[in-house]
Write a structure and sequence with these properties.
Helices cover 35% and strands 15% of the residues. By secondary structure, the protein is an alpha/beta fold. β11, α11 and β12 form a beta-alpha-beta unit. The longest helix has 17 residues.
């Protein structure tokens, strides 16, 4: 990264926080922000209910503003983003980095306050099954407002960017997520604690929400004799009903739920899995897919645009929501003997941070 210079000051809003907070957007910021902080001061607005001991760290060039928030679905991002904007009234910065379209509803307010706005578009949240019709309508409105009022837009997916008008294209750029260096843990203590045997389980990672399709995945492995164990690494933030549904579907006792898993524990799961499954019904940019590829895992994925970041053999894809097709793909992949090699050169976090820094400094 470039050396620190006098110039832009940056605030990051729209996320729950990091480190130690579950979520793809949170993981994205956890890697990106410390790199940006080598070139400019960064203030990150975090939501107090999600912060734990792992979140209480010092990062050079980064300050944290921890504000109250609710955990009520739908109200949470609205309340916290509003409070963040009020804080910015008296603690001003040059540029505000807004993550995702829900918090983007406040873009006009930030512009009226005299600050530039860079929107990072992670996913079309209104496509997620957890939202009702009113919430989807509000999210679509937020998207329109955010895309219209932001000074610049960063799409993490070029396929998502291509869906929009020339007006949006002219002020936007596609910058992907990245991957971190692979950790090769020497211990297998974590997987042994969960009764797992190296090379004899299939892995899935993600927050326990309906759009991740874990209910389809559990149904696919229940009657599949080729799958000894399925590990689902992730926790439920708000979808307690969905979490209970998943546990209820585990009628054969094949599924191991490890909860929110990170660090060396997650590395152990990746390192020793027989295969990885992305069962999502929709995604913006699945970081977990890149993580699985970085460990050289054989992969099954639903045939959604985001799963084609790095193309897989066609037989490794399955139709969204088709349990039998997912089971077929898993068996086929488990039967392969060669370990795949993926080209991940385009997903280097240092290069991604430099590209993002150029957008911010060019506003």
């Amino acid at each position: 990264m470039a050396s620190k210079r006098k110039g832009k000051t940056l605030a990051v809003i729209g996320i729950r926080g990091f480190p130690g907070v579950q979520g793809g957007v949170e993981s994205h910021c956890c890697q990106l922000v410390p790199r940006l902080a080598k070139a400019m001061p960064v203030r990150v607005y975090r939501r107090k209910p999600y912060l734990g001991e792992a979140s209480m760290v010092d990062m050079e060039g980064v300050t944290f503003a921890d504000l109250p928030s609710t955990r009520v679905k739908g109200l949470e991002p609205v309340l916290h983003t509003f409070l963040s904007c009020m804080h910015l009234l008296t603690h001003r910065v040059d540029v505000v980095s807004v993550h995702n379209i829900g918090p983007g509803l406040f873009t006009p307010l930030l512009r009226l306050m005299g600050m530039k706005v860079v929107l990072t578009y992670h996913s079309a949240n209104y496509e997620h099954a957890k939202w009702g019709s009113v919430a989807r309508m509000i999210l679509r409105l937020s998207e329109k407002v955010a895309l219209g009022c932001s000074n610049r837009v960063i799409f993490v997916s070029s396929a998502q960017r291509d869906r929009y008008s020339q007006r949006v294209l002219r002020k936007s750029v596609a910058i992907p997520n990245g991957i971190v260096a692979v950790r090769h843990p020497q211990s297998t203590e974590f997987i042994e604690k969960h009764g797992l045997v190296p090379g004899r389980y299939v892995l899935a990672v993600g927050r326990l929400t309906p759009e991740k399709g874990f209910d389809d995945l559990i149904a696919a492995v229940n009657d599949n004799p080729d799958v000894e164990k399925l590990v689902v690494a992730g926790a439920s933030d708000q979808e307690e009903g969905y979490r209970r549904k998943l546990h209820g579907l585990n009628s054969r006792g094949k599924v191991v739920f490890t909860g929110f898993t990170t660090g060396d524990d997650l590395a152990q799961l990746y390192e020793n899995a027989a295969a990885f499954v992305l069962s999502s019904r929709n995604e913006g940019f699945p970081l977990v897919l890149l993580e699985a590829m970085s460990y050289g895992l054989k992969i099954v994925a639903t045939d959604i645009p985001a799963a084609h970041l790095i193309p897989l053999p066609q037989t490794h894809y399955c139709r969204v929501g088709d349990v039998s097709d997912m089971s077929r793909a898993i068996s086929e992949v488990l039967g392969e003997t060669e370990r795949p090699v993926y080209d991940l050169a385009a997903y280097d976090w240092d290069e991604i941070a430099l590209a993002t820094q150029d957008v911010i400094e060019g506003v």
